[in-house]
Amino acid sequence: MIGILDSGVGGLSVLREVRALIPTAEISYVGDSAFCPYGTKSTAELRNRIGTVVESLLAQGARVIVLACNSATIQAVHWCREQWPQVPFVGMEPGVKPAVAATRTKVIGVLATEASLTGDMFQDLVSKHSQDCQILTRACPKFVELVEEGLLEGESVEVAVREYGQPLVDAGADVLVLGCTHYPFLKNAIAQILPNTVLIDTGPAVARRVHDVLAHIENEQRETAQLTIFTSGPPETMTKLLKKLLPEIEGTVQHLPLSS
Asked: Domain 2-92+204-255 maps to which CATH number in 3.40.50.1860, 3.30.465.10, 3.20.20.70, 3.40.50.2000?
């Protein structure tokens, strides 16, 4: 089983890529909507909460766990690997490296959460891969709120995209890194509002990493995929958002009570 966790529905963008690449995988997804957003929480709060979710996924039989959240990865992936050394953890990181390869102006914009941008992991990533490029960052809390409400287009989306993305483009950025798993659901809107920019989504790369990890683990071959979706929030809300964000996926949503 692949366990996938996120602060809410953002990780569904990673689930989509994993399902596309590994269609027969058994997957358990936990959207911790009751604790959303992760991006504004302290490191201690995040680790405590993520530990609770990880224990739940392990109890269900997860062999690999994906932290399908940039904030969770930056603040807790190394900690998780120390706490559960027998479990492979696959995390997210803003796509600075592919952005450097794609830019023509040598100016890159990174759209992410505050927790991601202030983490040492992000600073190390920039130092390692930015080369001679200028890296501009912008925290985008409204993006998470919009996706969690199922708002992917319209006036409120355009206002938020222009607020966060336009200053980076005006400063010369021709590549924007979508540094949060919620943001790919706004990809079409961002592309329309800020044309002539390259958008970097690392979801496909994470799916490939999961595929590689599974190749080293004995797995039962299945003819059909089994997908279970849990939420710490109201199941009816997650069900509604699932239909809107991933209409190609059918499945029921179950409530998962989590105690910090």
From this structure: 3.40.50.1860
